[in-house]
Amino acid sequence: MKGKTPMRLTAVLLASAALILTGYPGSAQEADDDPNIAVAYEEDGRYFTEDDIPTYNVAEDGTIDWRTYSGFRRYHSECHVCHGPEGEGSTYAPALKISAMEMDYYDFVDVVVNGRKVVSSSENSVMPAFGDNPNVMCYLDDIYVYLKARGTDAVARGRPGKKEPKSDVIREDENACLG
């Protein structure tokens, strides 16, 4: 029994190294091929999949779209206290960069708007409803695309360095939402 433990540890380390070197499933390397993430079209600085779901856009030089940048800012003003910086999760709440990859857009919106409570013998988690919070609701798509970009590692940890300018339509939508 004693001799098997180092072999298991070695196998786990080798498998982890392979995943790091080749990219784990859902990594930025695969994002261009994933219809749930890939940009199908752009409208006034907003990017969408072929199913009309908001998505992110990262140029070859690392420039990100405005909504992803805005999502970084909004996430860190409203969400990171519970869910940790850059969507990485915490001991208090799950990693939203993973949740955004596992949930579809409509489920994500539903949980943010209405909240969710899971209570069982092994779990007690509460996500408060943010449906009345304009600092979340006016930027919900921005937060979503930022977390998608983090979930695929298309956007690294930390403040994004380059961003597209905010379009006039995004500015008008923001002003209308905030009043």
From TrEMBL:
GO molecular-function term, one example from the UniProt record: electron transfer activity
Keyword Signal attached: yes
Coiled-coil regions listed: none
Signal peptide residue numbers: 1-30
Keywords: Signal
Name of the protein this chain belongs to: Cytochrome c-553I
Lineage, broadest ranks: Bacteria, Pseudomonadati, Pseudomonadota, Alphaproteobacteria, Rhodobacterales
